[in-house]
Amino acid sequence: MKVLIVGLLPFDSGKTSLALSLIAEALDRGIDIGVVKPITAFSGWYQYSSVQRSMKFGKLVGEDIYRLHSHARSEDPIELESPVVLMHMPPDPDRVDWQSSFYTALNLNEQIITLRITDPNGTNHYYLPANLGRLTGVMRDLALKLIESLKPAPKEIHDVDDILLNLGKFADGSVELISSNHEITIVESYNNASAPTQSSLKADIVLMVAPSKVAIYNGERYRKAVELLLKPPWLISSEEVASLLKPIKTIETKPTIDKSGAWAEGLLDETLRFGKL
Questions:
Q1: Residue 124: partners with Cβ closer than 8 Å, 6 or more residues away
Q2: In this predicted structure, what is the pLDDT of residue 136?
């Protein structure tokens, strides 16, 4: 069974916390569970621990998939569980004259420093030399250490534009491979994308999470709603799908400190029931 988790909000919906909750309860019941976060991006400034971890592993690894991989006690290669990873860094404020509007207006492709693309056939790392010049000295030195560790190939910004438009295509093979090997596979989307890849839409159940509430959707109906919008699912927001489709059920979640525990009470039972595992 495949469970797709999407977020209603671009940030802080609670996708990873919900996934960790399902993982904890599934493991307690002896259910074999796989995890995939096909597309992820992390900040080299705000998530410096992920930079350190990436240098240790010799591959870009984001915080969310590391938590999912660890909590699931996964034996799958972590690079296949998270096949597309982007690492970005904030620019030097001097270069935008300390104007916050210019600072925040930079496109993602102007902030990406390194990226990794993995498929079942292998892994490739890339970096953007043009974006190194936008960084402060401290951040540039850190980025160069990461580049030395990963040994990525250089890419131009216009090449990355094409990659960003086709992220889901690069990650699809890994989603299918991981999900074929487990009783339940949790696929976590990114930001508020309706789905991270095309094959992610072959989910039995879709869980749309927002602060304090989760909406449960039938996977086939959700897929058909996405297809009506005539764009790749990673370019469609979950809000657009929610406007077309009513959930089977909604469940409230409680505030908690330990979000790695089973805090979404009753959700696994509902997921198994509606997914007919």
A1: 116, 117, 118, 152, 153
A2: 95
Burial class (CB in 10 A: 0-12, 13-18, 19+), 92: middle
Token pair of 116 as six digits: 């990794």
More confident residue, 262 or 57: 57
Point out which residues pair with 213 in neighbouring strands.
210, 252
Work out the number of other CB atoms within 10 angstroms of the CB of residue 123: 16
Q: Which domain holds residue 235?
A: 1-32+183-277
CA distances from 145 to 54, 69, 141 (A): 11, 25, 6
Choose one of 138, 170, 202: the last residue of a domain. Answer: 170
CB 178 within 8 A of CB 3: no
Residue 83's SS3 state is: coil
Tokens of 247: 């959930």
